[in-house]
Amino acid sequence: MDFKGRAAIAGLGITEMGKVFGRTATDFAVEAIGMAIADAGLEKDEIDGLLINTGMSTILAQPGALGLDLQNALGLTDLRLLNVMNSFGSTAGAMVQFASLAVASGLAETVVCVYADAPLAPEQGSGAVYARSALTGIESLHPASGIFTAVASYALAAQRHMSLYGTTSEQLGAIAVSCRQWASMNPLAQMRAPLTLQDHQSSRMIAAPLRLLDCCLVSNGGVAIVVTSAERARDLRQPPVYVWGWGQGHPGRRDDNEIRTGAVISGPCAMRMAAITPADVAICELYDCFTYTTLVTLEDYGFCKKGEGGAFVENGRLAPGGDLPTNTGGGQLSGYYMWGMTPMSEAVIQARGQGGARQVPKNDVVLVSGNGGVLNYHSTVILSPHAG
Amino acid sequence: MVQHCDACQRDSMVGAKYCPHCLSPLRWVPASSRATLHTYAVVHQKSHPGFADEVPYVIATGKLAEGPLMSLRLIGSDAASLRIGAPLQVGFLDNGEAEPTPVFRPVSS
């Protein structure tokens, strides 16, 4: 059965982002879903599926964290599809995949996918939120060794790439600079002030080789999208964004986890379904929790050979006007951090042609990449403004 | 120590619950303490009060002679002199009354 172009994204809702305090993840989710439904020109009662990606609020058991009860917060009754999903940063792509399958099979007709989180508080910074430690048992070995944070683990990964292939901090910096150039044209982006390579190189070391400006933001906020059938989407308010392909890739524990992501599995799967090759991709929206994540992901999708990512990202290839416009809203590095919904939301905007000053003229094939854990979980979705 | 599978005679990473090859239970067996440097990083951020006076400190992933990868602190060397593939030895830091902490140390050639 050919699923290419059978489902489409018909609605998008993005709340205020960043250090927005006094609101729970559920508050953000309800607002984002309301915006997405209105964006699509739908009534709430037309929603018959709800997929929920819980974030740090749920892991930290904060008040108002997301769960199945979001259905009741929204006053949705008699849903035909409902689930809480979490494969970390790969979840947004997985939600779109499952929603598309549900729509194509008749399980549901109109499915809302949402991510919302409110981990930041005035007294709790972004580093502390993602520094979790087991104090006993074998799981305490990492904290007892001073390995507390995601940045420490990604630093280990980036250093192996550097040692094996000669990748440099300046090459990682080129990714940060490019993201900021895009972010400067995105009114939703949190970090829009100009950034130079020198700024990157002089930013403080967090876990060498990664500097502060190699690290993403952490944001409070919410993003929701509406997935429905291609036929139905054509009758709705926004230009349909067709789902051309999808894939997942979860490498498990291997000796090459630092330099090989699940994109080597999910990418070919999604491109085969979409009947494209990397050369056909007009825009990349990649999960960029760290600059290095972008670099290694580009290699694993086959945009360049393994080990050549550093040279590939130099000289503005990913920046406005470059050969491969990437993370055109500023990504997670300079835009906003909504896990996999950061690349997914910007992909929808670009595929619709609604990117304003940052709109990429050639937008016929948009590749969306999700990454979770420390390069452990991966998803790919390929979107297009064209039905097939 | 590493975790050993009696069914298929292979060693697994510390912390594994079941043998990843045949799903059999594992038991602890003494390890050689020998490893090679797989990758490393230098932590500058003060993420925990217990390590605030330690920064910057080196962390490393070593490939144990038995096969598994393991990430620990690396002491006795600065990052500038580290090379992937260099031999390491696992030792233990004496923490007084607290449990000793395993660490990597470079093996001088």
How many strands appear in the DSSP assignment of chain A? 11
Low-confidence stretches of chain B: none
Helix content of chain B: under 10%
Biggest interface? A-B, 35 and 32 residues
Distance between the termini of chain B: 24 Å
For the report, how would you describe the main beta sheet of chain B? 5 strands, mixed, barrel
- State mean pLDDT of chain B (0 to 100 scale): 91
Number of helices of chain B: 0
Please give the largest β-sheet of chain A: 9 strands, mixed
Please explain how this structure is put together.
The complex is a heterodimer of chains A (388) and B (109). Chain A is an alpha/beta fold and 388 residues long. Chain A is 34% helix and 18% strand. Chain A has helices at 25-40, 56-59, 70-73, 91-105, 126-129, 141-144, 150-165, 169-183, 197-202, 230-234, 263-274, 291-300, 309-313, 331-335, 341-352; strands at residues 7-14, 49-53, 81-85, 110-117, 205-208, 210-211, 221-229, 241-249, 283-285, 366-372, 377-384. Chain A has a nine-stranded mixed beta sheet. In chain A, helix 8 packs across helix 12 (291-300). The mean pLDDT of chain A is 96. With 109 residues, chain B is mainly beta. Chain B contains no helices and eight strands. Chain B has strands at 2-4, 11-12, 27-29, 34-43, 57-64, 69-74, 87-93, 101-106. Classes of the chains: A alpha/beta (388), B mainly beta (109). At the A-B interface, helix 6, helix 7 and strand 5 of A face strand 4, strand 5, strand 6 and strand 8 of B.
State the gist of this model.
Chain A has 388 residues and is an alpha/beta fold.
